[in-house]
Amino acid sequence: MKKGQRDKIMFVCTGNTCRSPMAHVFLASQIRNIPEFAHYTVTSAGLWVREGQESSSDVRTIAKARGFSLEDHRAQSLTQTMVDQAVAILCVTLAHEKFLKENFVNLPKTCTSFLEFGNDIADPYAGNAETYERIAAEIEQKIPSIIEFLRKELNDH
Q1: Which member of 62, 67, 77, 98 has the lowest number of beta carbons within 10 Å of its beta carbon?
Q2: Could you read off the pLDDT of 16-45 as tens digits, one per residue?
Q3: At how many degrees (to 10) do helices 57-65 and 129-155 cross?
Q4: Buried-exposed string 61-100: b where 16+ CB fall within 10 A, e elsewhere
């Protein structure tokens, strides 16, 4: 990658402790061996974050059951620098996408919400284990559509 070139695929949610980290690890695992995605890094951030907060134990357990680890994940706030490095930003809700478009500049051409893939992903914060599992399954189900969307979008760059 050349300096200043966009090379991040970014998921954005509210607190960066559940939805966006799960989407991050689910997508990263699926594209790991796809050559056209080899030079992209998948990451995540939140809009209203308690910096350094861990994912909940339910989220870590759900990820582990699927073969992923979120043990080292710590919440981070979306910054303009991150936006500048992103080739694609995928927001878990339309409200997050609207906030980005109103409060950040230099957004990548590909900046959309999960509505592109059927529906927003509800915030499970403080829900029970079943709620988190339902959200994880919903995100996981969207990953193939996200990959196809990114293939089409990123081929235009």
Answers
A1: 67
A2: 999 999 999 999 999 999 999 999 999 999
A3: 60
A4: ebbeeeebebeebebbebeeebbebbbbbbbbbeebbebb
State residue 86 phi and psi, 5-degree precision.
Answer: -85, 130
Q: Is 15 a residue whose pLDDT tops 50?
A: yes
Overall residue count recorded for the chain in this entry:
157
Report how far residue 41's alpha carbon sits from residue 8's, in angstroms, rounded to the nearest whole number: 5
Helix (H, G, I), strand (E, B) or coil at 79: coil
Q: CA–CA separation, 10 vs 23, rounded Å?
A: 9
Q: How far apart are CA 16 and CA 21, in angstroms?
A: 6
Amino acid occupying residue 111: C
CATH 3.40.50.2300: does it fit domain 8-152? yes
Instruction: Determine contact, residues 46/78, Cβ cutoff 8 Å.
Output: yes
What distance in Å separates the CA atoms of residue 6 and residue 75, rounded to the nearest whole number? 22
